[in-house]
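Hi there, hope your week has been kind to you so far. Thanks so much in advance, here it is.
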Amino acid sequence: MLTVRIIPCLDVDGGRVVKGVRFQGLSDRGAPHELAAAYEAQGADEIVMLDVSATPQARGTAVETVRRVRARLSIPLAVGGGVRSPADAEALLGAGADKVGVNTAAVKSPGLVGELARRFGSQCTVIAVDARARGEGWEVLVRSGKEVTGLDAIDWIQEVADRGAGEILLTSWDRDGTRSGYDLSLLRAASAAVSVPIIASGGAAGPGHLLEALRAGADAVLAASIFHDGEYTVADLKQALAEAGLAVRL
């Protein structure tokens, strides 16, 4: 049985971890390197760090922040936000990232997905997809949820997997920060469409939600608020998943 992963997410703005609802109303939650170290100590399988203001501000990810986090971290680190070229990705990998996440730039220039996969490997190439419910399906949002693309989210996930993406970070914009549970229909549709791992994001409030997402087809579950607010530790959630019969790294 494959082990499932629990991944704390650090949304970073101006060098500080922030959290809001649907990417709005952000409040300060602490220093990225301190939180990353704390979550590793709790048993996190990896850390995702997203520079949420890099794309809206048309700048690259803050490389020095990545270096500070890596200096405190031994588990895998995925970094995204503001990546527009292989050179941007190379800078992040050089600063200590193990994986690079791309969202807006991939939608604007789909060929970038294949470029990154060929140059750095599919295992390094994570495509972040922010999806909002539309009719019977979901559409892709970019620029931290500020821009609607009209792209069907499942079609886009299939395309980027075909182009070489090694993993999909799938966030439900409707559920982000709401603590109402992951969008299970979205997860089922995505996991049925591709064979690459799907990381579920958006809506977690407790172990029951994580279990639902994993049973719906997610390979890993990402959460932020429940960790930042101290409601659960990673160890708490792993224990609950283990008791439910899932394989976790303890």
